[in-house]
Amino acid sequence: MEDTQGKVVRNSTITQRSATSGQFRSWTVLLIGEQGKIISLRLTRQLIVSLTGLLAVLLSFAVFAVVSYQGARMKNKSLRKEVNRLKAEVAAANKARDSAMVRLMVLESEGKKSKSPPSQKGAVKTSQAAKIPTPQAEAATEPREAKPSPEPQPLHAAQTEDTPESVLPEKVLVENLQIWADEAKRSAEFQFSLKNIDPKQRRIKGYTFVVLNPKIGSKRSARVFPRTSLKNGRPIRFKRGQYFSIARFKFVSGTFTDIETVTDFKTATVYVYSENGSLLAQQVFKVDKILRSQAGS
Q1: Given a cut of 90, is residue 207 above it in pLDDT?
Q2: 155-292 CATH choice from 2.60.40.2420, 3.10.310.10, 2.40.30.10, 1.10.510.10
């Protein structure tokens, strides 16, 4: 009986313990190393729930970061396309503006030339009318006393009879020549503007000269910048000129040295040559109209 009761007591105790064992809320994890070292980790249900929640938060943040990055990337791509489009529009606008400026300069040059032909035509008609023989003209042709021949003109007179501007190619326009005299330094500075009026809008390269022509009866000789030999008022070696290269507009300047009085000169002529020696432009200015004082510059 005792043994039987003792067995019954033991069985009941084991049953009671096994019944209460399901009430534990933690687990122990044993980690055994290769050298027999044991590490125990106790995991509770609260810790497992917290780790699971933290993992879910991290995954959510990763998904949000990826979505945000993709959205920013797409937005950046669209902005880049918009910037490229605006750049193309600006380049087209600049090109259109340059074309309009060239056309405007061409129209201005044509307008200036359209004003001069009527006077030339009138002069031609007058000369032709003068050639028609009339009784009064025949009477006037009777022999009279011989008049003295006019004095030979200096070098600059031949220069004004050069090729007319209408024959020159319409590529370069010379404007606004100005001269500043410095009697103390016996020099004269000048500056003028070159405009590219080529209808094809090509870059133009070449050489420029400025020739000061003395007044009639003056003992002064013609002066040229840069210095070179002259023939009939024109430079002989065009490659000794002042080099230039323009796409639209350029200022050209220089200094004449060893000039005591600029007013001894009557005209200033600007010659523009191409790189192969062709005359692109020839413009004559009166010195008394383009002379500026140092204070008024």
Answers
A1: yes
A2: 2.60.40.2420
